[in-house]
Amino acid sequence: MKNLFRLQDLTNEEIMQLIYDAKDFKEGKSNFNLNGKIIANLFFENSTRTQYSFNVAEEKLGMKVITFNAQSSSLNKGETFYDTIKVFESFLIDGLVIRHSQDEYYKELTGLNIPIINAGDGKKDHPSQCLLDLYTIYEEFGYFEGLKVCIIGDIKHSRVAHSNIEVMTRLGMKCYTSGPLEYKEDIYEYIDFEECLSQMDIIMLLRVQNERHSSKMTLSNDEYFARYGLTKKRVEKMKDHAIIMHPAPFNRGVEIASDVVECDKSRIFKQMTNGVFCRQAILKRSFEE
């Protein structure tokens, strides 16, 4: 039984093995399956890509999938988060994929004897998104050492940024942040947005996560787009080999122009495709003997 709470908890070698496993799944070279295993996807926050990507990965591995609906559950009758999770363990299912708005929610679940895969917790971590970002970069360049990446946008509230920067740095990448100063975190190296465009190998955009804010952004959407939106004109400043990434959902006309979403440099939808194979690799790690 192997939990996955944070990708940062794995060694570089373990992370690379997940990348190699994802590559094998994508290329049809893996015969690994989990036929007959039952898994429950418990999403206490809204999700499209992560939830249904896990669902597809589980189906591809032959698993039986239970999809939890928080809105119609006994949470509305006063049942606690812990007790809800305990119910599913009591059903003798084989594993849980959980997303929750609480930072480090898994610390409440230390007594469970069932594999837990973190599908995102609060503003802290998003291990499967981090893995698919790494795999997409590795697929593009074939290495990590020395690559420069700038993550632009709402750094403060982004579990993607927090997961990625730590792991990318460990793997030898040079990480920068940019965007509105109100979302800046001083522990990371900040660079001017216009300046970063010509220097980076990877431009990674983030949306403004209004649902996590205690107050509204000081910039209007139009002002944000004018200052930090990735437009075709700004794309022209990027290196020839540089790529554009975004964990999605993206807001067209705010952090990215509509005609940039699927431009030649964009890998946004490829990230989504790669997410299925990376989540297969994560499931393999959790359940293989």
Keywords:
289 residues; alpha/beta; Rossmann fold; 4-stranded parallel beta sheet; 9 helices
* CATH architecture call of the largest domain: 3-Layer(aba) Sandwich
Give the end-to-end Cα distance, rounded to a whole number of Å: 8 Å
Order of helices and strands: HEHEHEEHEHEHEHHEH
According to DSSP, the number of beta strands is: 8
Q: What is the name of the CATH superfamily of the largest domain?
A: Aspartate/ornithine carbamoyltransferase
Total discrete domains:
2
Percent helix range: 25-40%
Number of helices: 9
Mean pLDDT metric: 94
The CATH topology of the largest domain turns out to be Rossmann fold
Task: Supply the CATH class of the largest domain.
Answer: Alpha Beta
Main beta sheet, described? Answer: 4 strands, parallel
Oligomer: single chain
As a percent range, the share of strand residues is 5-15%
What would you call the shape? globular
Structural class, by secondary structure, is: alpha/beta
Low-confidence blocks of residues: none
Radius of gyration: 19 Å
Biggest sheet, strands in spatial order?
Answer: 2-1-3-4
